[in-house]
Amino acid sequence: MLTIGKLAQAGSISTDALRYYEREGLLLPASKTDSGYRLYGQDAVRRVRFIQHAQACGFTLAEIRELLHLRQNDRACCNDVRQRAIEKKLQLAAKIRAMQTMSAALDRLIVACADGTQSVDECPILAALEQVEGGEEAP
Amino acid sequence: MLTIGKLAQAGSISTDALRYYEREGLLLPASKTDSGYRLYGQDAVRRVRFIQHAQACGFTLAEIRELLHLRQNDRACCNDVRQRAIEKKLQLAAKIRAMQTMSAALDRLIVACADGTQSVDECPILAALEQVEGGEEAP
DNA sequence: CTTGACCCTGGAGTTAGCTCCAAGGTTTAT
DNA sequence: ATAAACCTTGGAGCTAACTCCAGGGTCAAG
Protein B5 CA to nucleic acid C23 C1', in Å? Predict the structure, then answer.
């Protein structure tokens, strides 16, 4: 059995974060000592890893909780899990596209500025940001 | 002169947001009426557009305030502005890469699951998330 | 037996960019 | 004249995933 500090060390995470996971219903101690210390089994180590890897895939804690609940639910099947993954991938793709759009807009500004030797008063970047639309004229 | 409501309409933004920009030092009314109503000039319309376009490029309000300050500063030159844009583009690129990494991790999970006909107990996705490293064996 | 390391609970604070509200004063239209 | 629409300030609340703290109890080593 591990105390919270040992589990924290094993997972390279803070004890505060572990207690936070508990409040969020993601990680329950196996038991408590008479004096109220949390005790965790080896499954807690795996659980922490699960949470961390799912976070690294972009899942929020609320979504991770759902994934964990799916495992409990015997009517659920692997396909349900797979759907969550696919859905999350779509969300990521949308965010990536949004950021690529931003990046492209920046690119146009950077190119407009060319060498940047002008004074700020005539900076094409600042000027472009005030323009009604970033786009081109109708052809 | 525009009241805050008119400016809000012109910029498709809420009056609350405009007042928030004021608190953040991004947008000051040109004057106030005797009864305390804010009054804005046409430059405010351009200013709001500036803020919105800069946001669409990924700049935070704090960064936008800096851009605006650069314009005031006569020692600053266009190159300073350009540098901010380049810097922001790098930040975006880093975020995009992070999300692509997430997406790739999800892809491996989705592929591992293949058709998803298994029960949750033997779901390869859930299993993989508990694994020590998502990576492959040494060859 | 004391020192230091550990643990507990409960609650506040962080970041960003707002939104929403109350309680009241002002303007405009009818 | 009065109702509707507008404006003011100040402050609270929202999201996410924590962190940090106070004030106190517990445990292990020397």
Answer: 20
- Does residue A35 sit in the same domain as residue A82? no
Domain count, chain B: 1
A83 with A35, same domain?
A: no
Best mutation site among A106, A107, A125 for testing chain B: the one with the most B CBs within 10 Å? A106
**Domain interval for residue B66:** 4-76
For residue range A21-72, list pLDDT tens digits in order. 999 999 999 999 999 999 999 999 999 999 999 999 999 999 999 999 998 8
Q: In the predicted model, is pLDDT for residue B119 greater than 60?
A: yes
Residue B1 is classified by DSSP as -
Q: Is the CB of B33 under 7 A from strand C?
A: yes
